[in-house]
Amino acid sequence: MRKIFVSMLSSMLVAGPALAAQPDLTNAAAFENTCTAAAARAPVTVQERQAYVICNDIALVQQTRTFIEQGLRRIDREMPSEAAVALAVRQQLTYMRAQLRKSRSMLEKIRITSASEGLLIAPSTWVRDLDGDGKIAISERYFFALPARNDGDLTVGMPSEDEDYYASEYNLNATIRLDQTDILWGLSYHYYAEALVEVLLSYQLDRNTNKPDQAIRLAHPENMRQAQALIVAGLKTSEKMRLSALAETDDDLEWLGNPRQASTVFPVPLDDADFNVWGELMGHLIPLFQGKTLLPAAQRMSGPLGSMGSLCPAGKGFSLQWFFQHPPKYPLEFFNRSDTALYCRKLDAARPASGLFDFIARYGEAMEGNGRAAMRFLRRLIWVN
Fold first, then answer.
1. Signal peptide: which range, if any (predicted)?
2. pLDDT, position 15
3. How far apart are the C-alpha atoms of 273 and 150, rounded to whole Å?
4. What pLDDT was estimated at residue 8?
5. Which residues pair with residue 294 across a beta bridge?
6. What is the pTM of this model?
7. Which residues pair with 318 in a beta bridge?
8. Given this model, what pLDDT does residue 89 score?
9. 177 strand-pairing partners
10. For the chain, which ranges sit under pLDDT 50?
11. Which pairs count as long-range contacts for 321-329, CB under 8 Å and 24+ apart, including other chains?
């Protein structure tokens, strides 16, 4: 009798994950049930891992938005000290890093080897009270909905509270069957987001100085080093994703589709030229952040990268690797200090000049006078990360 009981118990334990309700993110009720279950138990199956990441990320978005909205109201109401605000922000960033790391670690474990393992999702059905006011605003109802697929310009503005806007500008019926390319897409974004938080945690406000350029000082250089590793991992994953997308031959409810896949709801259409530009850009960025190439001085190049390149004399280039490994103590005064030369390295065969500036200049010239083409390029860059 005892053997029979042990055998039955063992069978139940083995079958437990299979008997549990399968994740379902295709309607509002199932979304709530799936995310409640995802928070209560460790994921076992491939689909459960996908659901865990989505639910964890949505919970983080909700918690962060609530923190911001309630924090602003508290500042207006209580007028807390600068130190109290800085501490609260740092605690929030630390929490965000922990949650992003959980999702990223889970994404690294996911291997979708067949269509049946890919989770079916309908993002427009995911609804949350994001700001914690107890109500669902129209912009919250459609926060996770996907913009309609079009070749339009990049537009930036406040979230709309007009139902008709979402009906006309969004694909409210978008359904996706996740595959390994999509996992890589999400993973690369998580690397970048976690890297950004690491950079922010590297520095803190210095309230003991009367010099504005020293109001922010380096406190945790190890976070900058971790940020570099995450950025490199994100860039490598982006290139792996590009190759994975191009290699796909199926055409089943795609997210990021290649030019030969018609069944895709990706907000921007991508042609072969876009994939080639994407690959060329990764070919410049990966060795640059690894320290294998250097930023040379560049004329007509603006922005932080152009400023970094201009810090070095002829024959030398700026090392982004050295910048992350030995970050500046006071970033606000970085471009006005003489010791920036410490980041300059000799250009030679071992560490040649990066071709990034030439790449940007070439495409800039092609788009000169065509603002729409430039915004089209930027929109694609953002969506494919």
1. 1-20
2. 45
3. 17
4. 43
5. 353
6. 0.89
7. 295, 344
8. 95
9. 120
10. 1-19
11. 321/228, 321/289, 321/290, 321/291, 322/291, 324/224, 324/225, 324/227, 324/228, 324/289, 325/224, 325/225, 325/228, 326/221, 327/202, 327/218, 327/221, 327/224, 328/218, 329/217, 329/218
